[in-house]
TrEMBL record:
UniProt xrefs under PANTHER family: HYDROXYACYLGLUTATHIONE HYDROLASE, HYDROXYACYLGLUTATHIONE HYDROLASE GLOB
Organism listed in the record: Desulfosarcina alkanivorans
Protein's UniProt name: hydroxyacylglutathione hydrolase
Keyword Nucleus: no
Gene Ontology terms, MF aspect: hydroxyacylglutathione hydrolase activity; metal ion binding
Entry-linked InterPro entries: Glyoxalase_II_hydrolase, HAGH_C, Metallo-B-lactamas, RibonucZ/Hydroxyglut_hydro
Length: 232
């Protein structure tokens, strides 16, 4: 399955997944660009959906449906592990609450579309207030193969790496990550995130030391996760 990334609204990232002649739009705010790409490549936009219900991700959904006749899949009705068929290919839906209660991640081939759950270099804010659910969601994503590519809902890479450097200045993996960053195609691997992203490194010795220096409990993994989510 192929994936095309679209930038809109300054730092929002939306996606088109396609195989054969059929396509699925996820967070399709870049309406004109998506419609143009579909027409140029002789594709049929069959399905439109979202990673969660925040307005900056749902903008464009109705316009895409109206412009193309695509069917709308309400992300709030998905169940964990559900598959979306697309011209012989399939996309698996994983429920990943935390940023919001309705957040989902889409898994296909060797990539994950993570919305605002997992960014390249950081994670989303816990607007749901449920840090335990967020921890379970991050743990779920961490269980995918390290070679899986992470496609997120925003390009926050510059600010995220600046924070990672401030927090862990001796982590040489940050420079390698920064060297691979391409604003025209924002992507990382899960291995990259496990090496650099402080919010996935809650079991790393340097992060545990930082938590202890801040007087935060570290006895359990959840305490470490809660601690790193509290550091600004």
């Amino acid at each position: 399955m192929k994936i095309k990334q679209f930038l809109y609204g300054g730092d929002n990232l939306g996606y088109l997944l396609y195989t054969g002649t059929h396509a699925l739009a996820i967070d399709g705010g870049a309406v004109d660009d998506i419609v143009g790409f579909v027409r140029k490549n002789n594709l049929t936009l069959s399905l439109v959906t979202n990673t969660h219900g925040h307005g900056d991700h749902t903008t464009g959904t109705r316009q895409l449906v109206n412009a193309t006749g695509a069917s709308y899949l309400d992300h709030r009705r998905f169940v964990d592990g559900q598959t979306i068929g697309l011209a012989g290919g399939s996309v698996t839906v994983r429920l990943t609450p935390g940023h919001t209660t309705d957040s989902v991640t889409f898994a296909a081939d060797d990539f994950l579309i993570t919305g605002d759950t997992l960014f390249n270099g950081t994670v989303g804010n816990c607007f749901s207030g449920d840090l335990k659910a967020f921890h379970r969601s991050i743990r779920l994503l961490m269980g995918y193969p390290g070679s899986h590519r992470i496609y997120a809902g925003h390009d926050y890479v510059a600010a995220s790496l600046a924070f990672a450097r401030q927090l862990t200045p001796d982590n040489s993996a940050i420079d390698a990550y920064a060297a691979r960053y391409d604003r025209s195609h924002v992507v990382s691997t899960l291995d990259d995130e496990l090496a650099v992203n402080p919010y996935l490194r809650f079991n790393a010795p340097d992060i545990i030391s930082i938590l202890k220096l801040n007087g935060l409990p570290t006895a359990s993994e959840y305490q470490r996760w809660e601690g790193i989510m509290s550091i600004e």
